[in-house]
Amino acid sequence: MTRYRNLVLFVVLAAVWGSAFMAIKAGLEFFPPVLFAALRYDIAGVIMLVYALYVTDSPLPRGRTEWTEIAIGAIFLIAAYHALLFIGETDPAVTSAAAAVIVSLSPVLTSGFARVLLPSERLTKLGIVGLLLGLVGVAVLSELDPQNLLAGGTVAKLLILGAAASFALGSVLTRRLESEMPIETMEAWSMLGGALLMHIVSVGLGESFTEVVVNTESLLALGYLSIAASAIGFLIYFDLLEQLGPIEINLVSYVAPIFAALAGWAFLSEVPNVATASGFGLIFLGFVLLKRGAIRRELRHRFGSASSPSDSD
Length: 313
Description:
- InterPro entries: AA-Vitamin_Transporters, EamA_dom, EmrE-like.
- This is EamA family transporter.
- 76% of the residues lie in helices and 0% in strands.
- About 2% of the residues have low confidence.
- The protein is globular, with a radius of gyration of 19 Å.
- It starts with a helix and ends in an 11-residue tail after the last helix.
- It is mostly helical.
- The protein has a domain of 215 residues.
- α1 packs across α4, α3 packs antiparallel against α7 and α3 packs across α8.
């Protein structure tokens, strides 16, 4: 029964996070991009803080290490990631599916950063090939044209690549700290801190609340991203992380683009092209090469076989 429960939650999480790219695209018709991202995390941060107060005994960060982890989360996981993602999605050439596929490179980049920044990690030759395949996948998806690098949404897609890199780097830096702060507390304060930073950036970019259009569509987009994609999505993520472990939960990144493509087609009439599918395939192959040892161990564990001590990531 637990297996079916986890499967249902996994699909729900992939659907919610995948369709979030469509909601971002739709909401950008009514909000300046960075202000939109900031408002999303104003709401999500408050919800997560209330949840942290309810489920943990430590809803407030304590000490330098925990506040450093909050700062990293606010800067890299929330502010930089979402500001670059939302700005990138303002380009009409970037479909919801394309944005989701680029973001799916994040687990590959996380593995790469981990090998550089974590002393216990080491990038093997196959791991290097996997990392390069992931980057080639983004290049294919972005349809890079050396003759005209500013055409066809290339700059916007590279901004989204920067968002994925920011999230990956932030994930590795928080792992280095090894604090004992509850994840709910970390997420709540990172969301609120990231929202504050994005409000500052929004003002610096000259964005204004006068540009916001308040109607049914804009409120639905903001509400969906804040409540469904952020608050509820992260609660499901935490639950599955404990039940499945980091390897299986990483696969959400590779299922989400399917739902992003479906949502973009259903609500925005977006049609993914061959470059999107090809880029996705290369990124997923890169992930498999980078995490081949962990995947082997996970499969052996699931099917009841003993793992080999010679397996390596």
